[in-house]
Amino acid sequence: MHDPRVRPLLDELAVEYDTRYGDLFGRQAAADELNRYPAEEFEAPGGALLVIQENGESIAGGAFRRYDSRTAELKRIWTHSGHRRRGLAKVVMAELETLAASRGYSRIYLTTGPRQPEAKHLYLSTGYQPQFDLDADPETLKFLAFTKELPEVRPK
Predict the structure, then answer these.
(1) Alpha carbon distance 155, 143 (integer Å)
(2) Measured between alpha carbons, how far is 145 from 12 in angstroms, rounded to an integer?
(3) What are the DSSP E strand ranges found in the chain?
(4) How much is the average pLDDT of 79-95?
(5) What pLDDT, in 10s, does the model give residues 115-129?
(6) Global pTM value
(7) Interior angle at CA 124, CA 106 and CA 136, nearest 5
(8) Contacts of 8 (CB under 8 A, 6+ apart)
C-alpha cells in the first residue's frame, strides 16, 4: 500500500468517499477507512495487491487481506475515473479471486458503502451473494456485505 503506483488510486478513492459520503460517517471518515488496516496485512502470503498500469499510469487496482482461515477480504477495488466503463474492475476482481484461491482461500468477503450503486451492481453481476436485504433502502445500512465461494484450486 506504500508503493508509489498505488498512491494515485488511493488519493482519488479518498476524494470519491468524501464526495459521496460527506459527513455521513463523521469527519475524516474517508481517511480513517483508507488507513484502517496496516499495509502489512495486504502482503503475501495472506494478502495481495494488484495494480493495472497503462502508459506508466495506475488506472485500476485492488487488494485482499486475510479475513479468516478460509476467507480473503477484498479491499480497495478501484478504477481511476478517467478509465471507467472498460471492464477493468472485473479484471482486477477475477485476478484477485484466482490468486486468493491459489493461496488456499475458499471464499471471498467484501463490503461496499450504501452510496456506491456501481459497486453493488458489479458485485452482483460477478456472482457475489448479498449478505443483506436487497430490497432494503441502502441508506439504512452502514455497509453492504457480499460473499462468494471460490472454486477449489488443485496443485499442479
Answers:
(1) 36
(2) 23
(3) 48-54, 57-68, 71-79, 107-112, 129-130, 144-149
(4) 93
(5) 889 999 999 999 999
(6) 0.85
(7) 115
(8) 57, 58, 80
